[in-house]
Amino acid sequence: MTVSLMTLDPSVQMPAQMSTFAPAVDDIYYFIYWMSVVFLVGITGAAAYFSWKYKRKPGVKAEPTGHNTVLEIGWTVAPIFVLIYLFHAGFKGYLDLAVAPADAMEVRVRGLQWSWDFEYPNGAHMNQLVVPVNKPVKLIMSSSDVLHAFFVPAFRVKRDLVPGMYTSLWFQATQTGETNVFCAEYCGGRSTENAQSGHWSMITKAKILSADEFDKQMSAAVGPPEGKTTEQWGEILYKSKNCFGCHTVDGSKGAGPSWKGKFGSTETLSDGSQIKIDENYIRESMLDPQAKIVQGFGPVMPTYKGILNDKEIDALISYIKTLK
After folding, report:
1. Cα 239 from Cα 56, distance rounded (Å)
2. For 54-149, where are the alpha helices, taking DSSP H only?
3. 73: which strand partners?
4. Dist. CA 274–CA 99, nearest whole Å
5. pLDDT digits over 48-105, tens only?
6. How big is the CA angle at 291 (ends 119 and 305), to the nearest 5 degrees?
7. Are 169 and 139 in contact (CB under 8 A)?
8. Mean pLDDT for all residues in the chain
């Protein structure tokens, strides 16, 4: 049964618990939270009481109160046991998060400006994270351009994607449904060419499906949807691969050239030379976008090598041809 994210909220402070990690993470959080509340109330209350009880009175000379050795040793030693517990719980949780089970399904994750790409064992690529329920999933992650941060609050997992290296995390979803995936790298990252782009806009979904539904979606993801033409599949890919973030189809200006009426036209490149927009140029621009940049646009497009297969490139070209 699919479970709504909103109905699973354990409190107003934390999102739904949708992975095996969530209860343990929440236990530590609420332990620290309520301990802080108790000490805040206790210390503030005691300070207010003693300020009232021992306030300066006319004719009374203040005298040193001395100290209480037992009390001082007590409030020094007691926090040590709390810190030992928190270190043990935190370190155990870190090890659990760092070491994935041997039978975990691996998903390749790439962070791009400004979208996610998820590659599955059968070669399927999606812009949403789709996983089976009750199955450990290991994410092998990298960035194609700048620092990104993969964050799924409902799973209680977060890890940076660093250019030039691989990072990983794993989780096991506990019920079907869907929740948000964010890029939590909120510093900078805004495109000067397109105010609608940036780390903040890299919001997608994590969908947790039953084993049968997952297998069906994986099978459907490696080719055009049933009943769709190549051109229609290209339009679907235009949206699912986040091409619309930079390229419009109505002629309006974006971070990259508009696709409307582009095929067959002649463009001036940044070096002053001219080129005809044909199949070869479009394919090269997807796989090696810095090779030939249209004049007036910056080198901001990431490569889609390893993200788009030949059939998907053909579908996108077919779609571009229809945009007269």
Report:
1. 72
2. 69-98
3. none
4. 53
5. 998 888 888 888 887 777 788 998 999 899 899 999 999 999 999 889 888 999 999 9
6. 10
7. yes
8. 86
Give the residue among 309, 137, 321 at the shortest CA–CA distance from 214. 137
CA-to-CA separations, 230 to 42, 215, 225, 227, 304, in angstroms, rounded:
68, 23, 9, 10, 19
pTM value is: 0.66
Categorise residue 272: left if φ over 0, alpha if ψ from -120 to 50, beta otherwise.
Answer: left
Question: 140: which strand partners?
Answer: 108, 168
- Amino acid identity of residue 186, one-letter, is Y
Q: How far is CA 189 from CA 151, 198, 300, in A?
A: 17, 5, 12
When pLDDT is cut at 50, 70 and 90, the band that residue 259 belongs to is very high
Residues 178, 16, 39: CA angle, nearest 5 degrees: 160
Residue 163 has a CB neighbour count (10 Å cut-off) of 12
Strand ranges, E, within the chain: 105-112, 115-119, 125-126, 129-132, 136-143, 148-152, 157-161, 167-172, 177-183, 204-209, 266-268, 274-276
